[in-house]
Model the fold of this input.
Amino acid sequence: MHPREGWQGHGAPRRPGLSRRSFLARTAGAGLAMGGLGPLLQACAPALAGNIKVPLPRPNNPVTWPIFKANQPIASGLPAERGATLQIFNWVAYVNQACVNNFQKKYNCKAEVTTFNTMDEALAKLRSGLSFDVFMGVTVDVLGQLIESQLIQPLNHSYIPNIAQAWPDFRNPFYDRGWQYTVPYTIYTTGMAWRNDYVHENPDTMRNPWAMPWQAKYKGKVAILDDYREGISLGLMKNGIFNLNTTDRNQISISRQSLQDLASLVDVHIDNNDYTEVPTGQIWIHHAWSGDMAAAASYMPKGVPVEVVSYWFPADGKGPVANDTNTVLRSATNPVLAHLFLNYLEDLPNALENISYNGYMQPLNEITPQRLVKEKILPPNLMSTAVLPSYFRRGVGELQLPVDADALWQQAWLVASNGI
Done:
């Protein structure tokens, strides 16, 4: 799931109950138990317009998407729409309203943000015909369907000169060669967060830091993310398997067994409250997202210094790395303003202002761990939550899986998380 799924707003707890991934995992298990993969695979198969077959982008199999005759980029040199209201479609609490307000002032327009809680919800609204200009936070795993269904339009690069400020990787990303449809938005890692005043092990000195949660002495104080991809990936890495898009049934089973062992060993919690539970000390070791832990200072109890919170991601970048993208919808009635908004968020001052609100880093050349500390956006002890270009290049992405393999992942997560 996306780190923002179920988020109710900045500083608010996520909703209790099942996440989208948890729900899918449980329905996956039920489908498997009641008669095989057929109905399940049909339900889980991504489809926006019929049974579209799309390639699965990988770093070793980059994809250049087609530009369709009926869906061409807008012309160059057009003026920004006047008297317009830019319609922005985004995750809850995933853009700083101050940035939106400043954009309105700069371009003498209005801007309205409509939010969604899950990517499934967002796609359903777009399929129903709801119209927006900008679609923010688009995950790489749904990009192909959006393009092949012609729901997003190819970009005219002349309106987005600030792409020069982005890491070179995003000017030719493997999932959208030539950045024909996307500009980068946020980037984040999945690692280990812990309260270093209660847990004295240093992951950097451990033989396998991904095995950090498997310690009986911390029973009741360990949590992993409520996410079938993140959960099974953790079990894989605990066993030295770093193909986080594996279709190997045996490897998936090994991960499932490791997670079942973890449940027995430490009475593990499964939730996405890493950003509150570690700062407050409710949980001492939490499998966590970097952007959540970057905001730890906002959740520290009175009198408790943020320095007691630590976050680990391997220095060689060999761990889960993900990024979101921003796009212009084909239905945009203000496509020039939409392009200009994408460009606006690629500019360093605006990106820094945005990060100061949502905690999730943007991959611009001038945004470094040191710069985030200097701007007082990030505490020095949490510089490890910042993402380096090398992480994107060496990291392992949890990318879109073939439908049958995805069902195996979901079934394994159902078994591992059942009853916890």
Q: What stands out?
A: The longest strand covers residues 183-195. The radius of gyration is 21 Å. Residues 14 and 49 are 32 Å apart (CA to CA). DSSP finds 14 helices and nine strands in the chain.
